[in-house]
Amino acid sequence: MSDDVLAWALRRAFSSGLVGEKIDILWHAGEPLIVGTDFYWNASRKIAEFNVNSVRVSQCLQTNGTLIDAQWCDLFKSCDVKVGVSLDGPEWINDMHRRTRANRGTFHTTMRGINALRTAGIGFSILAVLTRESLRHIDDVFNFFEAEGIHNVAFNLEEIEGANTAWSFGSDDDPVELYRDFARKAFVRHSRGSLAIREMSAIEGRLDRLPASIVGPSKPLQFVTVDVDGGFSTYCPELHGIKYPDGTRHVFGNVRTNDFLDIVANPQFLQVYDEVMEGVAKCARSCDRFAICGSHRVGNKFFENGTFSSSETVNCRTRIKVAADVIEAQKNCAVSSASTAAAERWADTSPHGVS
User: Fold this and answer.
1) Cα–Cα–Cα angle for 130, 136, 137, nearest 5°?
2) What does the alpha-carbon distance between residue 310 and residue 281 come to, in Å, rounded to a whole number?
3) Residues 6+ apart with CB under 8 A from 271
4) pLDDT of residue 116
5) Residue 152 and residue 125: Cα distance in Å, rounded?
6) What pLDDT shows up at residue 162?
7) Beta sheet of 253-254, edge-to-edge order
8) Are 181 and 320 in contact (CB under 8 A)?
9) How far apart are the C-alpha atoms of 272 and 262, rounded to whole Å?
């Protein structure tokens, strides 16, 4: 991203009227460390320059960690950058799919980067992709992270979307049932505190706050993606730049010439918006878990079903429905067990003859 595009993107964001008390800036897509530390030092200065209302800014960065060294750690500390590292588990699982252009596994260089973060005292989270292999050996994955002292982990089920056009599951695999086994085991680890698993805490939080409003990627301009040429779009970043059957692309303006709110007059955006809201309505009518989801996985609908005006996806069957079912069942079981234990203790201490 050029200095000019970066400046325009930040100028548009901070002057848009869309920013409340806080803005999250996520450096993502590809490997963000490739551009070098100078880019982020410059970006941090420009963020301060355009943040005239002094809103809270959180810079977040998702990386494979292979380039992290003392120089990067100095940047992360000085600019208060939150770091997420992509690592799928032990070496044999991680290196099945995470490989360099020279076809070498990334495990050892990623672990070297993690150790640099630890040496510098920088906290980090892990993003792991759940493939066929990792789901079939999920205890090995959990055990690895626990043995490494890695606590905060997010698990994304492998999906066919954006640049990822194939997945590891075969015709005989049932990703939903594999995810159910993952969710049961994940809840146990999460509940005892050995791992803090995003997928468990997220659904627990939503179940505790029912009913939910429509939030997240189904709400336009909640998320804005800006590419290296200044093109911008909304909804999930995986949609950015995709080509529709009519030849148009999922890009609704350019920061050099458009404010973010200009999309409300963009016929292409309005067509997408109408389809998205039709999909939300379909979910509201047909899904008993709508209150904890709000039909927020817009990209999955398009990539799995071929249209935004649709409802259920593999993603919602797993990360929402299965996870919620498992958490409720486990909590109900715990409450039932606690009630039984309390009754037994009361019976043991009651005077004879009292019933």
Assistant:
1) 90
2) 9
3) none
4) 97
5) 5
6) 52
7) 224-226, 231-234, 253-254
8) no
9) 15
Domains of the chain, CATH where assigned: 3-182 (3.20.20.70), 216-312 (no CATH)
Q: Which tens digit of pLDDT belongs to each residue from 48-67?
A: 999 999 999 999 999 999 99
Cβ–Cβ under 8 Å, residues 304 and 218: no
Q: Which residue has the tokens 């950015």?
A: 240
pLDDT of residue 49: 95
Residue 66 Cα distances to 112, 277, 289, angstroms: 7, 41, 39
Q: Which residue ranges of the chain lie beneath pLDDT 70?
A: 160-167, 210-217, 334-355
- The dihedrals phi and psi of 2, each to the nearest 5 degrees, come to -70, 160
Scan for tokens 């995810």, then name that residue: 179
pLDDT of the residue at 133: 93
Between the CA atoms of 244, 260, 299 and 242, what dihedral angle is there, to the nearest 10 degrees? 30
Q: Give the full edge-to-edge strand order of the sheet including 196-197.
A: 22-27, 56-63, 81-86, 124-130, 152-157, 196-197
pLDDT score for 350: 47
d(CA 44, CA 16): 19
Note the pLDDT of residue 206: 81
Buried b (16+ CB within 10 A) or exposed e, 126-158: bbbbbbbbbbebbeebbebbeeeebbbbbbebb
This prediction's pTM: 0.84
Alpha-carbon gap, residue 14 to 223, rounded angstroms: 14
Radius of gyration of the chain (CA): 23
